[in-house]
Amino acid sequence: MVANTPNRWVIALAGVVMQIALGAVYAWSVFRIPLTKTFAWTIPQVTLTFTIAIFVLGFAAFAGGIWLRRSGPRVVALTAGVLYGAGVFLASFTDGRLWWLYASYGVLGGVGLGLGYIVPVATLVKWFPDKRGLITGIAVTGFGSGALITAPIATRLIASVGALQTFAILGAAYFVTVVSTALVMQNPPAGYRPEGWRPSAAQQQRVARPYAFDEAIRTWQWYGLWLLLFLNTTAGIAIISQAAPMVQEITNVDAAQAASLVGIISIANGAGRLLWAWLSDAIGRRAVFLIMFPLQAAIFAVLPTVTSFSAFTALAIAVLLCYGGGFGTMPALAADYFGAENVGSIYGLMLTAWGFAGVLGPTLIATLRESNGRYDQALYLIAALMLLSTIIPLLVRPPTAPQAEPAAMPAKA
């Protein structure tokens, strides 16, 4: 341990709090009904705001991963807090203009989300080489749990001051939270190792010669991991984007109960990120996906037949456990395959899968619901997709380690 090294668990805690504020985006479905009623917008039009934010997030995370290597996590995280808070705050000036809502909450807020999301993931994996699966799960647990706090607060605020004023209040709160926690974020000193820990032989090989970004994206395994994340995310984000109105339509509960579902599944989202990541340290990362895909296929096939709130909630919890599990496990899997040194940019680009899934999942379910008045068709389609996806983790094996750089020849006298 290097002298005067900060407590790594304090940095981990700051990362979780930061992610809770960023993960409030998952409470978007509580705005769907108020916005459609207030401005006579369609379901797909309102859902597109969330879709834009998640799509932009993926590409911003990649840019943030590259920026991290040059400027460190603190600068990136501070920028994230400013943009995310400003984007949500500015959405309060929408006043019936869809393009303004898309530009503020969707684009500006999405950039802040992406820059902020990659910071704890890329930073904590360097602080915790001895607990890689667990810490990546912890790093993203806060993001999955953000709606737990935000959904009930936003629902009460919407009822008392309206949707637009709620954006202003939440935007200010996000700014303060993310900027405050950003001040704690920093990389470990060069050569850092936890006291008493020694890397395994496989880890030593990666430490000695990790993949550079351009080397990683030339391997077919990188694209295999991208596809795993894309498919798993598509299913869960479809549910997240429509959770509140879907459960109201299917089980005839009121808006308050529907908002409680958003909070409950956010717990599952967060818990799944920690649970599956922790389990992946024991059974392997690929094994986690081999369990999650067929499980989700069965759940989506059953969902259209459910009529009770408790049964719907139980199934939605299971889906969100798997959704969170993908985000908790994938950073560790990327670090296992390509090394931790450049995981910010390597995994950052992989998060574009989240962006594309954020387009496909919400758009698919919103469009089919709008066209036929029911969610059945979309749910059965996602079930089939999850069943077909099971083959992917069987195929994705670790890449061959890159060759060490050749030593320079001594100059002749």
Q: Please give the CATH architecture.
A: Up-down Bundle
Q: In CATH, what is the class?
A: Mainly Alpha
Radius of gyration, rounded? Answer: 21 Å
Which stretches are low in confidence, meaning pLDDT under 50 for 5 or more residues running? 406-413
Beta content comes to under 5%
End-to-end C-alpha gap? 42 Å
Question: Averaged pLDDT, please?
Answer: 87
Give the fraction of residues assigned to helices. Answer: over 70%
**How many strands?**
0
Q: What do you see in this structure?
A:
The longest helix has 32 residues. This protein has 17 helices and no strands. The protein has one domain: MFS general substrate transporter like domains (Growth Hormone, Chain: A, Up-down Bundle). Helix 4 packs antiparallel against helix 5, helix 5 runs antiparallel to helix 6 and helix 6 packs across helix 13. The protein is an all-alpha fold and 413 residues long.
Write the layout of secondary structure elements.
Elements: H1 8-22, H2 29-39, H3 43-71, H4 73-90, H5 98-127, H6 132-161, H7 163-182, H8 201-208, H9 213-216, H10 220-251, H11 255-283, H12 285-302, H13 309-338, H14 343-350, H15 352-372, H16 376-389, H17 392-395
Helix pairs in contact: 1-5, 1-6, 1-7, 2-10, 3-4, 3-5, 3-14, 3-15, 4-5, 4-7, 5-6, 5-14, 6-7, 6-11, 6-13, 10-11, 10-13, 10-15, 10-16, 11-12, 11-13, 12-13, 12-16, 15-16
